[in-house]
Design goal:
Layout (H helix, E strand, L loop, with lengths): L2 H31 L1 H15 L4 H5 L9 H7 L5 H12 L12 E11 L2 E8 H21 L9 E4 L7 E2 L5 E4 H6 L2 H5 L12 H5 L3 H14 L4 E8 H24 L9 H10 L6 H11 L7 H5 L5 E5 L8 H8 L4 E2 L2 E3 L4 E4 L12 E3 L5 E7 L3 H4 L6 E2 L8 E7 L15 E12 L2 E9 L2 E3 L6 E2 H15 L4 E11 L6 E10 L10 H14 L2 H8 L7 E5 L3 H11 L16 H8 L2 E6 L9
Parallel strand pairs: 1-5, 3-6, 6-7, 7-8, 20-21
Antiparallel strand pairs: 1-2, 4-5, 9-10, 10-11, 11-16, 12-13, 12-14, 14-15, 15-16, 17-18, 19-20, 21-22
The protein binds adenosine monophosphate.
The site of adenosine monophosphate (AMP) has 18 residues, from strand 1, strand 9, strand 15 and strand 16.
Length: about 600
């Protein structure tokens, strides 16, 4: 291509990017400037659209009333359990206007569970379009931040995975939310984001066999290594998993590249054909040698930057419990910027990060006021202990610095209404940090759930995360980081005690000395010191025994995830449980304990 053509191509890419950015900014500005008006409109639309539904009639909502006070007074108490029988009717093929007037096109399976089963969230076409339109609008905010980049050239190494789908007896597709987005042509067709050119062919992303899918996606990423300008996964944990996969399979991958013959384990016919036709026409021994030399040995620091030298950032959800993966990803990526854009769920897309390069610790999501009608239950630190539940407030009445639990009313009939402990509550705790135009911005704090309790102590996921942070600080001078963690309240001993399972990784081999047992005991105590008053007073009065760390052999959390997936969890949406209660999972963990260490003394207790 001569120089002039290159300039034209670059200009056209830049122009496309500029136009997309302007359109997105305008759209988001409009939405966020009229947040309260939009919220009123959303509730009115939900109620008027659904006035004829069996659900609203059943519960005596006066026909045609769209006023929020009438809604709050008349619509009865519900939880997912309360509408489960309605959702089962939809599952079994009842297509009458039951929960919502618009036709349900699929059921999205949430990672949230109900009696051990995934919750099934009904979705309409309008719903899906609303989500996709907004998601596509947020990407130009990111491209705008990537300086000096030619948007025509960059490719995304998108390690995105789907899984098996089922057809309900009523003929609806039931699948994880990521499948629903990744298999929707609108997601690709309407996306103005030039980096959406994925290195992976659609056959690889759509292949439900995770081995075949990730194997071929890595191969494609190697073949196009100089084109890759970003690496994308859904959750941070997915990328650490993919890196572990690479550790286990790089020799096979290199063998394929150097021989030009695809591994016979890739048996999915359309994927196999696509790989052979598009990528594997010629052996590439030099490339294989390079990948092999990058992967051989123990030191994988900066491996992503070595293999994909033009990558400018990594995109993954890294807030909430995913912050745990930030040090790991910094280690493997050689310090590439980590970008998190979305705060989403099966029920609804809540918020987007409009300042993509701010770093995962600083993210405040802007709530999207057109996605659902939101209410906010103000929380105090005592709520989790007392179980009390204050009145929820509307978006117009939220206050900066306050933590809230999010409550939603969506277009598809997940109605919310104040009554004690009986609302459709997301279980997510968020902290109001400010406003974008008139729209609230929130930090994601935690899932509102207690993970550990022996006595009257109640340790939440974020308390545990904080304690892990303390242990990390103790380990840092020893070049050791915590790869992953989980916990369990062990009541087999008297008194019961907290057990923290850790998988550790040492950055540079520790001169053969290993980590002294005293350091791990110090970690136990540091964790205890960071826990709450009720924990420490329980320790003082010997109602709670010394905290125990069980160090796991390498690869245990990968095995735990494989185990969860083989039992029905979704790869893309899988989140490591921060507390394990399942007997079989505990057996797996306990079968791989290398050493065990207890807190050597009682933590200081101040009332
Ligand atoms: P699912 O319905 O299975 O997709 O899970 C949705 C849940 O994942 C949310 O309610 C949050 O608890 C969590 N989640 C989603 N996005 C984020 C995010 N950006 N940061 C932290 N947690 C998130």
């Amino acid at each position: 291509m001569d120089e002039a053509v290159v300039v034209v191509a670059e200009k056209s890419g830049a122009e496309v990017q500029a136009r997309a950015y302007e359109a997105s900014v305008q759209y988001i500005e409009e939405l966020t400037s009229k947040c309260n008006e939009i919220q009123t409109k959303v509730l009115a639309e939900i109620l008027s659209q659904n006035a004829e539904t069996e659900y609203l009639k059943r519960h005596g909502m006066p026909h045609g009333h769209i006023n929020r006070d009438t809604f709050k007074t008349n619509v009865p108490v519900i939880t997912y359990e309360d509408i489960k029988s309605d959702i089962l009717r939809i599952y079994n093929g009842d297509f009458s206007p039951l929960l919502c007037a618009k036709p349900i096109v699929e059921l999205v399976l949430s990672t949230g569970t109900s009696s051990g089963q995934s919750k099934m969230i009904p979705i309409t076409n309008d719903d899906m379009q609303r989500r996709i339109r907004l998601r596509n609008a947020v990407y130009p905010f990111l491209t705008k931040c990537i300086e000096g980049e030619n948007p025509d050239k960059g490719k995304m190494l998108g390690l995105l995975l789907t899984r098996d789908e089922t057809i309900t007896p009523g003929g609806l597709v039931a699948r994880p939310g990521t499948n629903a987005i990744l298999k929707n042509p609108q997601f690709y067709n309407d996306n103005p984001y030039p980096y959406n050119t994925n290195t992976s062919p659609i056959e690889a992303i759509h292949c439900p066999d995770h081995f075949q899918s990730i194997y071929t996606q890595l191969l494609c990423g190697f073949y196009q290594r100089h084109d890759v300008t970003s690496v994308k996964v859904v959750f941070g944990s997915n990328l650490t998993w993919a890196i572990h996969f690479l550790k286990g399979h790089y020799s096979d991958l290199c063998h394929d590249i150097s021989s030009g013959n695809l591994n016979p384990k890739i048996t999915d016919l359309s994927l196999r054909t696509r790989m052979i036709d598009t990528f594997m026409q010629h052996p590439q021994p030099e490339l294989a040698k390079f990948i092999e030399s990058a992967c051989i040995g123990e030191n994988w620091e900066g491996i992503l930057k070595t293999i994909w030298p033009n990558a400018k950032y990594i995109e993954a959800i890294l807030t909430g419990s995913m912050t745990q993966y930030i040090p790991m990803l910094n280690y493997y990526s050689g310090g590439l910027p980590l970008v998190t854009l979305l705060y989403v769920s099966s029920e609804c897309d809540f918020g987007y990060n409009l300042d993509p390069m701010c770093g995962p610790y600083n993210i405040s999501y802007t709530l999207m006021p057109n996605m659902a009608y939101y209410e906010f239950i103000p929380l105090t630190s005592e709520d989790d202990v007392s179980g009390s539940q204050p009145e929820p407030v509307d978006m117009a009445n939220v206050e900066v610095g306050q933590e809230y639990e999010l409550v939603i009313t969506t277009y598809t009939g997940l109605y919310s209404q104040l009554l004690m402990n009986s609302r459709y509550r997301m279980g997510d705790v968020i902290l109001l940090t400010g406003f974008y135009n008139s729209t609230p911005q929130f930090k994601f704090i935690r899932r509102r759930n207690v993970v550990l309790s022996i006595d009257v102590d109640k340790t939440t996921e974020s308390d545990l995360h904080m304690a892990i942070q303390m242990a990390s600080n103790v380990l840092q001078p020893f070049n050791t980081i915590i790869l992953d963690y989980t916990s369990n309240s062990c009541t087999e001993t008297i008194p019961g005690h907290y057990v923290i399972y850790l998988e550790l990784i040492t950055k540079t081999p520790a001169n053969g000395t290993g980590l002294g047992a005293n350091i791990l005991e110090e970690c136990c105590l540091a964790m205890e010191e960071s826990l709450g008053f009720y924990y420490k007073s329980g320790r003082k009065s010997n109602c709670i025994g010394p905290l125990e760390i069980r160090v796991l052999s390498n690869g245990t959390f990968e095995k735990l995830m494989d185990f969860a997936i083989s039992n029905g969890a979704t790869f893309n949406q899988f989140k490591m449980p921060r507390c394990v209660k399942s007997v079989s999972m505990l057996e797996l963990l306990d079968s791989r304990v290398d050493s065990s260490h207890f807190s050597p003394s009682t933590p200081h207790c101040r009332s």
